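Request from the bench team (R.T.):
"We need a structural guess for the complex before ordering more zinc ion. Sequence and SMILES attached. Just send the C-alpha cells back."

Command: build protein-zinc ion structure.
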Amino acid sequence: MIVANYTAHFYCDCEACEEASNLEQAEYIGESWAQVAKRARKGGWRISADRTRSFAPGHKVKRNSPSKAR
Ligand SMILES: [Zn+2]
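Reply to R.T.: structure attached below.
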C-alpha cells in the first residue's frame, strides 16, 4: 500500500498582508497539486496561473500591471 499526500501551504500575496508583514496562510492536503488547488479554490483562495502566488479569501488580488491607488 502506498499513501502519498501532497501538502501545500498558501500564503497571501496581497498588498495588505505584505504591508502588515502578517501573511494570511492556509494549509491544504490532497493527493496531487490539482486536488489541493481545487480545495484551496473552493475555500476561496485565488491562485495565479503560474502557481507562484496566492491570495486569501476576500483579499485584494494584486495584478502585475500598475494598478490605481486604493
Ligand atoms: Zn492578504
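Two things stood out. The chain has one domain: 6-55. The beta strands are 6-11, 25-30, 46-47, 54-55.
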